Amino acid sequence: MDLTTFTTPADVDAPQGTGTVRAFMDKHFLHFNSRETVAAARAFEAHIDAGGKMMVTLAGAMSTAKLGQILARLIRADKVHAITCTGANLEEDLFNLLAYNEYEIIHDWRALSAADETALYERGMNRVTDTCIPETVMRHMERQLIDRWKQACDNNERKFEHEFLWDIFRDGKLEKHYQIDPANSWMLAAMEKNLPVYCPGWEDSTTGNMFAAAVFRKELPHHQCVKTGTEAMEHLMRWYLDNCGIAQSSNEGKPSVGFFQVGGGIAGDFPICAVPAIIQDLQRDDVPYWAYFAQISDAVTSYGGYSGAVPNEKITWGKLDAATPKFMIQSDATIVAPLIFAYVLGD
Q1: What pTM did the predictor assign?
Q2: Which PANTHER family match (predicted)?
């Protein structure tokens, strides 16, 4: 199927959805960013239906924004095949799982004074826009993780960041502490599906800070139990080669891997570089570019503030092909991503 056909206006020869969300979007999202949103959703769906795989990247505070409620469904429906996210998104999905009832929502957060912010800090409430995460859940998880990291150091184990988190949830001992339906956790869904999860820059997250502090205090003997970012890149390159349609004869004729980017920054910049690394650094001329690209961002290309290059600029970096279906939606990801995911799910 020629995915480029999905760049036409949403009301021209468009497949009409039967779900309430799909039907509404098909009828009303006809121009500008709304048309681009529907076009990106249709191309996402067509890519998956044709046998392609999809990488989803999460920047910002998408887990605290509760994107996991619908992303978990997308993962369980086999419409997401790998995740790249910041350390904050990795851990905050699980903070939410364990402590949602202790979260505080601040409806008038724009009116907070410095004194108000200080009062939140002194109560151990860490603010993310309109949501305050209690420090207590972070310390609860810290105790679990340090024990697991110690065990790994003692046994010469080395794992990625998400694998240690999965380890402390896999045995079910934390289930009694769940404060939301576990079906709404994208990290648990990824664990169930054993999805590859990449977390570049993990060291700037709460759990990354905890790990560094534990080594500093000599509570952990060294840093080596957590695999490095370059190891993650090598793993991603191998995963891409296994899933881009060239590794096995059964994949012949299938599209390569798609790339759905929520926000910007390192969560998107890191994984998209796997393709030019394979083509240029490994000198593999048989490897396809990313087969689909969509990004939701409120950033604009001015004064170097836009990280990772806009879609056409990515062509010059060997990330996308001129014919790759490309979608750039400049809007709030907490509004647009759930709509696209719901569309793909047939809601």
Answers
A1: 0.92
A2: DEOXYHYPUSINE SYNTHASE
